[in-house]
Structure formats: structure tokens, C-alpha cells
Amino acid sequence: MVREFRKGDLDEVMEIWLISNLQAHDFISKKYWNKNFTEIQRVLQLADVYVWEEDGKIQGFGGAMQGFLIGIFLREEYRGKGIGKALLARMRRGEESMSVAVYQKNVRGVRFYMREGFKVQSERTEESTGEKEFLLEWKK
User: Fold this and answer.
1) Computed from CA positions of residues 42, 45, 47, 49, in that sequence, does the dihedral angle turn out positive or negative?
2) Cα dist from 100 to 12, 56, 58, whole Å
3) How far apart are alpha carbons 69 and 62 in whole angstroms?
4) What would the pLDDT profile of 5-46 be if each residue is shown by its tens digit?
5) Model pTM?
6) What sign has the CA pseudo-torsion 76, 14, 12, 118?
7) Rounded distance, CA 138 to CA 140, Å?
8) What is the pLDDT of residues 55-97, one digit of tens each?
9) 39, burial (CB in 10 Å: exposed 0-12, middle 13-18, buried 19+)
10) Whole-angstrom Cα distance, residue 25 to residue 47?
11) If DSSP states are collapsed to H, E and C, what string results for the chain?
């Protein structure tokens, strides 16, 4: 079930964030993700975050801030089961538009967002990784 993030969820959410990024972005070094861990931890506490909880354990989450989707992150065994779609639906509630940056090599992520009505607005190279990414946008 989708519910709002609570402060006590932070450790579990950050574990999912790190593992998910390492799995989805094997083209970026683990060092990069570890370096950004503390900043993401800070940002998530300011964002609108929703978690998917099942059997008393967080299995995934999604976060957005001011119309920008930080991302959707799921434990591996919970991917492809409609949970990302449910989290996205909750985050879109009340929004007229939303954008998200997705690495082009994250084919599964790009497909997911395109399937959910996002369209490519631009392409750019992220400075800190040197990786190409799409800026995708959804409009109601």
C-alpha cells in the first residue's frame, strides 16, 4: 500500500535508493552514489515522498519536489508489479505537470516513464557523470 513517508523510514528508504541506483545504473561507479548519499538523504526529507509498504516493510518509494520527480526506487523483487505506477499516480495527484531526468542508458526507466505519458523534452549530458540523460515531462 502507498502511504506518506515518515521520518523513521529514512534508513530503509536510503538503503533502497542506493541498491536501486547501483542496479539500474551499473554504468556509473559506486563511488558516485556513495558520494551523493548524504545530499539525497537531506533532499528527501524536504520532498514529498511516498512509500510502498508491504508486510510491515518498505519495498519502494518515490519522491517529488516542486513538480520535479526525484525518482521511483523499488527493491528488485518488487519491480514490474505495478508498484511504481501506483507511486507515480499518487505523486501526480494535484499536479498539472511533472518532469524527471533519466539516464539514457537506463532503458527500463525510460520505457516506464514513456509508458506513463512522459515525453522527451530535451537531452543533455550530466556534468558530474558525463552520462547522457533525457529530461522527460508529463502534462495532465
Assistant:
1) positive
2) 23, 29, 23
3) 8
4) 999 999 999 999 999 999 999 999 999 999 999 999 999 999
5) 0.94
6) negative
7) 7
8) 899 999 999 999 999 999 999 999 999 999 999 999 999 899 9
9) exposed
10) 23
11) CEEECCHHHHHHHHHHHHHHHHHHCCCCCHHHHHHHHHHHHHHHCCCEEEEEEECCEEEEEEEEECCEEEEEEECHHHCCCCHHHHHHHHHHCCCCEEEEEEECCCHHHHHHHHHCCCEEEEEEECCCCCCEEEEEEEEC
Phi, psi of 63 (to 5 degrees): -140, 150
Task: Find where cell 529530461 sits.
Answer: 135
Q: In whole angstroms, what is the distance from residue 32 CA to residue 43 CA?
A: 17
The three cell numbers of residue 125 are 549530458
